[in-house]
Design brief:
Layout lengths: L1 H11 L2 H4 L5 E6 L4 E3 L9 E3 L1 E4 L15 E6 H7 L3 H19 L4 H7 L2
Parallel strand pairs: 1-5
Antiparallel strand pairs: 2-3, 4-5
Length: 116
């Protein structure tokens, strides 16, 4: 069911954006929970819900070959911060769109303004 929700979110992306996506894989990691240092507070590490790895479209030059991009969705991490299926569904949507934003070259500050 988790994977189905991820696919539904990807399918819901407007066609004008989907047709610009090339050489991008979505991976669902069922096992790992990554913790990253929270530089803005003293609360300790933050749980990473998803991770974009690659070169954003806005940083690519036409001459250089680009390795495949990857978005990893951390299933256990998302489940650990959600209380019910509705929250899981909303969180999956938010993190998938957030990581796609990075693929398109949108930075963290702008994604927060956009609500992702």
């Amino acid at each position: 069911q988790f994977e189905e929700i991820v696919v539904q979110v990807i399918d819901s992306v407007p066609e004008k954006f989907k047709k610009k996506v090339e050489n991008l894989s979505f991976i669902i990691d069922d096992e790992n929970i990554l913790n990253t240092p929270d530089k803005k507070s003293q609360k300790g590490p933050k749980i990473t819900l998803a991770l974009y790895e690659g070169v954003p479209l806005t940083k690519r030059s036409g001459a250089k070959p680009v390795f495949p991009d990857k978005i990893t969705i951390f299933k256990k991490a998302i489940e650990s911060v959600c209380r019910n299926d509705s929250q899981i569904r909303k969180t999956i949507r938010r993190v998938v769109l957030h990581e796609l934003g990075h693929y398109f070259g949108i930075g963290e500050a702008k994604l927060k303004i956009l609500g992702y």
